[in-house]
Amino acid sequence: MFEEVNNSNSLVVLPTALGKTMIAVFVVAEKVEKSDGRVLFLAPSKPLCEQHHDTLSSRLGAEVRVVTGETHGSDERPEAWGTGGSRSRPHRPFGTM
């Protein structure tokens, strides 16, 4: 399934616990390797963001950030997303809207 979704816009619909997150981890890893190291991963709730944060951090060994309305005010988001100020290396944003 990874090959099917990796190079196109895709929507993966599977029942709970059948691997949607792991497919996303493989896609994120591939995109990070082939790009500037930034990926925006959206989730519909803060608990799901935190769950994905833990999974991505442990599987990719990359800097992963959770950005929500509760964790960052609107004036703090550019820096949290890695778009404000100077930095020594790319950040891998992770957030929800």
TrEMBL record:
Residues 1-97 form the Helicase ATP-binding domain. Residues 68-97 are annotated as: Disordered. GO terms for cellular component: cytoplasm. Residues 88-97 have a biased composition (Basic residues). Keywords: Membrane, Transmembrane, Transmembrane helix. It comes from the Archaea. One of its GO terms (molecular function) is ATP binding. The chain crosses the membrane at residues 12-29. The keyword Transmembrane helix applies. This is Helicase ATP-binding domain-containing protein.
